[in-house]
Amino acid sequence: MKRRTALLGLSALAAALHAHAGDAWPTRPVHLVVPTGPGSSLDLIARLLGERLAARWGQPVVVDNKPGAGGLLGVDAAAKARDGHSFVLGFNGPVAFAPFLYRRMPYDPARDLLPIVMTTSQPNVLAVNTARVPARTVAEFVAWARTRRDGIAYSSLGNGSSAHLTMELFLHEAGIAGVHVPYNGSPPAAMAVAQGEADATFMVAPALLPHVRARRVHLLAVTSTERLHSLPELPTMAEAGYPAVQSLAWNGLLAPAGTPEAVIARINADVNAVLHEPGVRQALDAQGLAPVGGSAADFRRTIDADIKRWGPVITRLGVRLD
User: Fold this and answer.
1) In a domain, 41, yes or no
2) pTM confidence score
3) Are the C-beta atoms of residues 260 and 22 closer than 8 Å to each other?
4) Domain match, 293 and 305 both
5) pLDDT of 259-310, one tens digit each?
6) What is residue 90's three-state secondary structure?
7) What is the β-pairing status of strands 152-156 and 200-203?
8) How far is Cα 285 from Cα 91, in angstroms, rounded to an integer?
9) Other Cβ atoms within 10 Å of 261 Cβ, number
10) Of 222, 257, 272, which one is at a domain's C-terminal end?
């Protein structure tokens, strides 16, 4: 009886320590892995949030860019971290799409990662090179693409990304051929279109906007169900005649499995608070990024919905990366 009472006492103590883990955390610098390169939309979000979170936590937030393998490299590094202070700013590709694209992966998103909070969600935009592509509407682009004997060349921010799969879906729906040229992140993928190395791309707006202002890239449409208030002149893909081509490129913080619930709750609460700051919302809006926030459960539902929607699409299109 005494042994049972002692064990119960130890269990209660462990539970209490676990519950207060979030109060004591962090005890050293926090590492935020970004699985894309500097200057990408994820990098922008990480540095914007990191600066404000560091002030709240009293510890530096170190942004660690680890691009490669369509985001798998960086996500894998964070999934295997066991220091209690390393997290990843993930996105659709390496979290929701990858299990359908690769026969073998270095990590299991469902087993090795815990959703913390969704940071932003934004549609992709269809962009074309101004000089190479004589099209100012989606219909004109499709008509031009059908005249290309070898199809179009399109860039993306990586294999298995939302940008990659959205274009593959569009090519299928429009009945045109395309050659995929993947890059490590949105800045080089956008530059490829601006310099004429690629004819077109689907990606989120931030990396494209400087080239749009320089008149080297033209935007044709957005993949959301409604027009963007930041780019109201762009029709939706549904308005352009392709209702099946809908996609949202979301970003969110994820932790390695085993991270205490109290730490997850602490990060979730602080990120939500930062996302509600007017200055942060204005900075994100200026880049065409919509802040989301919400609970860890909300983020999990978004991931599950993406898996349910895109899994069959990837299988139908026959896209494989190994």
Assistant:
1) yes
2) 0.84
3) yes
4) yes
5) 999 999 999 999 999 999 999 999 998 887 899 999 999 999 999 999 999 9
6) strand
7) parallel
8) 19
9) 13
10) 222
